[in-house]
Amino acid sequence: MSETADPPITFYRLQGCPYCERVTRLLNEYGLEYRSRFVEPMHSERNVVKRVAGVRTVPVVVDDNTGVTMAESANIVDYLESTYGEGERPDAAAAGAGGDD
Ligand SMILES: N[C@@H](CCC(=O)N[C@@H](CS)C(=O)NCC(=O)O)C(=O)O
Q: Which part of the chain is the GST N-terminal domain (predicted)?
């Protein structure tokens, strides 16, 4: 039998985009399955993401688990934390753990 079901989260992103990396990191931290859709580097040619989210910037996350479509990395990070996190941001936990300099 094949496992062909699409992951519930679709992540529109661009190679080398620091905002996207922030989201990637959190998705991975939370062990969430997602499908990456790499958008066109040319802003004007990003019609797919424009259609889905109303913007041409990435990152954009579409979460079929909750019916949420979201742009803006800070909002996405907040959303992932509040939806899938356990009350503590991995970044913040890491930053606060063990560093005394
Ligand atoms: N404030 C946005 C910035 C995202 C952003 O600037 N993404 C770049 C790629 S790294 C982009 O899509 N640029 C195209 C544009 O600004 O129209 C966020 O935090 O998500």
A: 7-88
Question: Tens digit of pLDDT for each residue in 67-81?
Answer: 999 999 999 999 999
Tokens of 21: 């990396």
Nearest-atom number in ligand 1 for the CA of 20 is 10
pTM: 0.84
| Structural domain boundaries in the chain | 9-91
In the CATH scheme, what architecture does the domain 9-91 have?
A: 3-Layer(aba) Sandwich (3.40)
